[in-house]
Amino acid sequence: MKNEELAKKLMSPSKNSRLEKFGKTITFLCLALIVFIVAMILIFVAQKGLSTFFVDGVSIGNFLFSGTWNPSQGEFGALPMIMGSFIVTILSALIATPFAIGAAVFMTEISPKYGAKILQPAVELLVGIPSVVYGFIGLQVVVPFVRSIFGGTGFGILSGVFVLFVMILPTVTFMTTDTLRAVPRHYREASLAMGATRWQTIWRVTLNAARPGIFTAVIFGMARAFGEALAIQMVVGNSAVIPTSLTTPAATLTSVLTMGIGNTVMGTVQNNVLWSLALVLLFMSLAFNMLVKFITRERKRNYAR
């Protein structure tokens, strides 16, 4: 009898195993909930966005490649906003990348002590500033500056680029810093042992080894800029025409969405076409994520070699 009770006790799950099973169940439920929410968002936005083409009969070609946006007259050309979003995003990333790399190199290679004490808190402060504050600063400082230097109204892509440059700078800087710190120390030691100077080591070894991570940081910054709405709306001018210069008023996908979504009736073609713009934004976000995954995969392969 005692042997049977002992065997049953040994075969029964212990308290730790029950807790582990409970933890796995909770984790699985949380992951399932996240997947469900993401799937519902994708389905909802896709259903609303595709109604423009399959219910209202708007041509996909005209929507993507026409330069005339006048929903009240039945003209739904999204090309001006798509071009505006891409131009603002690419230019802001091009400007922010050198500053971010320079700040990251300073904090990791040149002066880690003072970088952690002075530069890193300053960059962290930029992260905590709300978008509306960036918009107001752009409206009161950047727009008059652009107007005084380049003429015109001051509203346009150039003002949006300056605002987004400051907004994405912390993201690119922090991710680049983490990437540089992840470069194996023996890379630097081997370069210095072969007679390279510190700057040669930074330029030809450290930055070269961290290149995939830097590309990932830039793409994350571009995704942040592409989806920004409030700040860019306040300085870009919100004129849905194909940009002819950097200083003329323009529009982005997010600025048109934030301005128009509250002024349309749900279910109308004017409302559905705004959901189509949101669908374009969603596809671009997915494209950015896929590109990040591809670069990360290549980075792991390089380190494995």
Automatic annotation (TrEMBL):
Mind telling me which InterPro entries this protein's record contains?
A: MetI-like, MetI-like_sf, Phosphate_PstC, Phosphate_Transport_Permease
Q: Where is the ABC transmembrane type-1 domain?
A: 82-292
Which parts pass through the membrane?
21-46, 81-106, 118-137, 149-175, 214-236, 273-295
What role is this protein assigned? Part of the binding-protein-dependent transport system for phosphate; probably responsible for the translocation of the substrate across the membrane.
Q: Which SUPFAM superfamilies match?
A: MetI-like (SSF161098)
Q: What membrane topology does the UniProt entry give?
A: Multi-pass membrane protein
Q: Where does the protein end up? A: Cell membrane
**One Pfam family matching this protein:** BPD_transp_1
Gene3D superfamilies in the cross-refs: MetI-like
| Family designation | Belongs to the binding-protein-dependent transport system permease family. CysTW subfamily.
Q: What is this protein called?
A: Phosphate transport system permease protein
Q: Which domain of life is it from?
A: Bacteria
Q: What's in the keyword line of the UniProt record?
A: Cell membrane, Membrane, Phosphate transport, Transmembrane, Transmembrane helix, Transport
Matching entries from CDD domains are given as: TM_PBP2 (cd06261)
